[in-house]
Amino acid sequence: MGLALSEARRALLTGDVPIGAVVLGPDGEVLGLGRNEREAHGDPTAHAEVVAIREAAKKLGSWRLEGCTLVVTLEPCTMCAGAIVLARVPRVVFGAWDEKAGAAGRSSTCCANAASTTGWRSFPASGRTIVPCS
After folding, report:
1. Which one is catalytic: 7, 49, 55, 75?
2. 69 versus 110: which is more confidently predicted?
3. How far is 132 from 106, CA to CA, in rounded Å?
């Protein structure tokens, strides 16, 4: 979560919402880092999770991120939850609930079907991180 929080802080430098993400390989290797870059690039899809997923897929040479874990500072939105499922990321750990736009946990059933068919799981990191994420 520390790397994700560092990425979130970097997003502030470009006027973006401070959200950061990290994709870890099955062995814990960092495969991709991302932070919100919507303002920086004028790209509405440049959310931290998507940026990290793209970097990890490029590094692996495959869009299938099976066995990987995505660590993100805020519960993913609907778009990011869809990207996570489509990239076959089986585990997501997030640092804070997003009551407004969260789609990966308690406030949405967006991923319920994906979870039942792909085994996709999300885990709030409460109690696991020293630095607050919200």
Report:
1. 49
2. 69
3. 19
